[in-house]
């Protein structure tokens, strides 16, 4: 049966969507807007699967709109450009990450500072209202249309499937490493959690030349952390003796965990003036002990993705230094199983959907 989504815009599109908070995905016919003068249209080839897709599918953050087509790690090849587009041409390899719009007004300090991700009117790639009142649809679909200012160029020769997770997982850890000055050779940086975000934090931190320790509750992850991802050390957060021995030894910690967990043990690991940066998004509030912050002039901070200039910088850096995520490429019809596995942390370390070869309209 036809839906309103099929006729909102002139251009037919096909993807997989959830219709309600069950989060179960199934084939979905909808539509995309025509290519405006500043737009880039592209055929989607790959789309990464992010843990926030699960939060959005189940409306755990409280603002999801349905039908919901997830996906904000989107890679493809340009098929059409608007008349005023000057950054891209047909045939270019491009990507769209977590946002497709912001106010871009001269009066917006964040937009003027290339921090569109912090603009109060930032538009998410999927599951929210666009400027025309229609719902934005993400990359679990066959085509995308986006303003050129929210499209990035994929460097020549960089694997397209591996590029996808950089558009969320990559920039989410790259940006705080840069902003909080944790990118200087010789510093000691901890990474909490070894999932999609965590493994990218290890790889970027090592590329910056810092000493990296993975902090995990899972002893069985030690070999992969050190041998596969290149971490220098591995710290079991449930081992009191190990944690005690590491007290006051970290310049900064990137915390990627999206489940409830105590912060005090992590704060204790920081040197004076150290920084604990939260990039995971737990559903429930965490307890923040203030006294140890005061006594060491320590900082607990947050960070989310990056602006478009920094996102392009990150991808170019990744290509130059051969920073690539560890991925498992899947067909679109495996997506519901993949999401179940993701909830169990049963992936090394990021699912990427092969949209180009496996997304076929139902007959």
Structure explained in plain terms:
By secondary structure, this protein is of the alpha/beta class. It has twelve helices and 17 strands. Strands 3, 4, 5, 8, 9, 16 and 17 form a seven-stranded mixed beta sheet that branches. The chain has a six-stranded parallel beta sheet with strand order 12-11-10-13-14-15. Helix 5 links the parallel strand 10 and strand 11. The two termini are 13 Å apart.
Provide the descriptors you would attach to this structure in a database record:
seven-stranded mixed beta sheet, six-stranded parallel beta sheet, 363 residues, 17 strands, 25% helix, 26% strand, alpha/beta, 12 helices
Averaged pLDDT: 95
Question: Number of DSSP helices?
Answer: 12
Number of strands: 17
Specify the oligomeric state.
single chain
**Shape descriptor:** globular
- Integer-rounded radius of gyration: 20 Å
End-to-end span in angstroms? Answer: 13 Å
- Helical fraction: 10-25%
Contiguous runs where pLDDT drops below 50 for at least 5 residues: none
Q: Report the major sheet.
A: 7 strands, mixed
Strand content: 25-35%
- Overall structural class, as computed from helix and strand content, comes to alpha/beta
Q: What is the H/E string?
A: EEEHEEEHEEEHHEHEHEHEHEHEHEHEH
List the helices and strands and how they pair.
Layout: E1 11-18, E2 25-32, E3 39-48, H1 51-57, E4 74-81, E5 93-96, E6 99-101, H2 109-112, E7 123-124, E8 143-147, E9 152-153, H3 160-163, H4 169-179, E10 188-192, H5 196-208, E11 211-216, H6 222-228, E12 233-236, H7 240-245, E13 250-255, H8 264-269, E14 270-278, H9 291-296, E15 299-302, H10 308-320, E16 327-330, H11 335-343, E17 350-354, H12 355-358
Parallel strand pairs: 10-11, 10-13, 11-12, 13-14, 14-15, 16-17
Antiparallel strand pairs: 1-2, 3-4, 3-8, 3-17, 4-5, 5-9, 6-7
Helix pairs in contact: 4-5, 4-10
